[in-house]
């Protein structure tokens, strides 16, 4: 119990480090006209300027004669672009990713848009350095890639995980956790589909700010511990209501990644499947850890209300620090 409390307090010392720093390197290849391709890249700030990755097109591609590369450093990323002339189509061709110094265990998201309108996206693991652009879209590969993207997003989305953590704490028992998480799943799946299909559209910064606010709300409820409130009596109502907003947050990521042109439904479905798989694994781990902590507390005579209240206050205030920081930071993006 003491170790858990100390760990949570130490985590609160660096709230900004958990918000976005696990993003992959992003490369986009767009066919502007026949055999002319625009390569764009966006590198996260975790990579030093001396170790920026590069993406190499096939050997028959060369810089466009009258253009040079352009780069600009933004607050959070390094972006750039370069125009290429190729002798043959990139469909079926190999691309290579390399680092000048060392591989920092960073994933790479590569997106290819052909002139015909077909779009392909591939998430390369840190140990993968090449990708053969498919000539035809494979439903199996799309399902595999987008499931992986969904799992990666939920595990890197610390704000979503903290929201789930608070829900599990409030729900308490296994049956209430199951009902609460099911409500969250159904609601965010609904808005994810509507937004990804462009049937509902809301600006991303306010949505992200309200997601952080939802965590502040749950942390406050845990800190006050008024068991007669709506949140404590019916956590599924809260998880369902806020789940609609979290679904819009998932959709913002999926919009940036892009859905495949042909296997659109497959991509959307399996991205959501990946999110649910990652979510289920996280909730299961949290529920088991909480059960073990409770058993250890009883065994070591730490089950008194005094220790329980101390753990609850430390838990809620630590998460509140993270969420408040994110809320203010995200509000500054549109104020």
UniProtKB/TrEMBL annotation:
Pfam families hit by this protein: HupE_UreJ_2
Residue ranges of the TM segments: 161-187, 199-220, 232-255, 267-290, 310-328
Name of the protein this chain belongs to: HupE/UreJ family protein
UniProt KW keywords: Membrane, Signal, Transmembrane, Transmembrane helix
Originating species: Zhongshania aquimaris
Signal peptide as annotated in the record: 1-19
Alphabetized InterPro entries for the sequence: Put_HupE_UreJ
